[in-house]
Design brief:
CATH topology: Neuraminidase
Largest sheet: 4 strands, antiparallel
Structural class: mainly beta
Radius of gyration: 22 Å
CATH superfamily: TolB, C-terminal domain
Number of strands: 28
Shape: globular
Number of helices: 1
Strand content: over 45%
CATH class: Mainly Beta
CATH architecture: 6 Propeller
Strand order of the largest sheet: 1-28-27-26
Distance between the termini: 60 Å
Length: 360
């Protein structure tokens, strides 16, 4: 039987250890750990099973902080309840694949990376991501990462059916669209062409989206939006003469795309036709997300020193509604969307990014 004094000391020490969270802050969160919605730092696991994540709970007219991520965010995608990201800290030369709950339940890490990531996509059970030139996957629930392809050379990826599709962005001298089975196997080149030289970036296949009708790609170097058949073959030009076309959103039968340098936003039919300008005045290389209800993007400041604004843009009228300020020292690096909320990542510094949500 222990003495009363020792029992009391043990109780105090245990309480302090629990309050301080004695696992290392720089290590991946333990399985089942959640994170502070304000800081994204993993908390100590409890004996109780964490509640399953639910849909976005952001409400009202202000943005909610969902989590903080170390480094720059390059990949960002989600399902009904969770957002997934890949990030890289340039000075630490390290990165993470992680998850942020949409309901404000915090952030956790799935994998640590020693090669810079870019693209990321999700399906019902797994997260797919690039790490250097490798294509990887990891279960959404965590566990061991798997190499799908040791050399895939894609900076942007998308999942459709049983395949992962990729384009290289500005990487390398060739524009290509590649497809590989999700479980690994032979990579099929749907298209490969020498990239035209240009002194002004971006100059590659900058973004892609995929649905049953094909693979949609923004061709920054040639100023085009293209659609490729899922099994390969000749592409169809959906929009031509679009100077430095950049990001892309697919909304049923409609596409949204923006121009990296001119800051213009367009819509076009996914079957082809004359594009329609929706808005202008976006920041350079603005990331976008959109559906039939709205497009979300960052609008540039009216004058030097003012804040840019993360905004909702009406597809028909072009009306712009400010959702949040983006200070001149910061930028929006990624945007995602669902029926409830819009989510965006603000790069505050080279070592810190913050995930926000706002009800639509």
């Amino acid at each position: 039987m222990g003495t009363p004094t020792l029992d009391r000391r043990s109780t105090v020490i245990a309480a302090l250890a629990t309050a301080l969270g004695c696992h290392g802050a720089d290590k991946p969160a333990p399985s089942g750990a959640t994170a502070s919605a304000a800081t994204g730092v993993a908390s100590a696991p409890s004996d109780e099973t964490p509640a399953a994540p639910t849909r976005c709970k952001a409400s009202g007219g202000t943005a909610s902080v969902l989590g903080t991520i170390t480094g720059d965010v390059f990949g960002f995608d989600g399902d009904g309840t969770v957002l997934y990201y890949s990030s890289w800290e340039i000075y630490g030369q390290r990165g993470d694949v992680g998850a942020v709950r949409k309901d404000g339940g915090g952030a956790s890490k799935l994998a640590s990376l020693d090669l810079e990531p870019r693209g990321l996509a999700v399906d019902d059970t797994a997260v797919y991501y690039t790490s250097g030139i490798r294509l990887m996957s990891i279960p959404k629930t965590g566990g061991e990462a798997k190499t799908i392809a040791p050399q895939f050379s894609a900076q942007h990826i998308a999942v459709h059916g049983g395949d992962v599709f990729g384009v290289p962005g500005d990487y390398g001298p060739y524009d290509r669209v590649a497809r590989i089975p999700k479980n690994g196997g032979d990579t099929k080149e749907l298209s490969t062409a020498k990239r035209p030289p240009s002194p002004t970036p971006p100059n590659g296949f900058s973004a892609l989206r995929v649905d049953d009708s094909g693979v949609f790609v923004t061709d920054s170097g040639n100023g085009r939006v293209l659609r490729f058949p899922l099994d390969g073959g000749a592409s169809k030009i959906l929009a031509a003469h679009q100077d430095k076309v950049f990001d892309l959103a697919l909304a049923g039968p409609m596409l949204y795309f923006d121009l990296a340098r001119k800051g213009e936003l367009y819509t076009a039919s996914s079957a082809g036709g004359t594009p329609k300008k929706v808005a202008s005045g976006l920041v350079e290389e603005a990331r976008i997300a959109g559906d039939d209800r709205a497009v979300f993007a960052t609008v540039a400041a009216k004058k030097d020193g003012d804040a840019a604004t993360f905004s909702r843009i009406a597809p028909e009228s072009g009306e712009v509604t400010k959702l949040a300020d983006v200070p001149s020292t910061q930028s929006v690096s990624r945007v995602a969307l669902d029926a409830d909320c819009v989510y965006w990542v603000v790069r505050e510094t080279s070592s810190k990014s913050v995930v926000y949500a706002r009800h639509r």
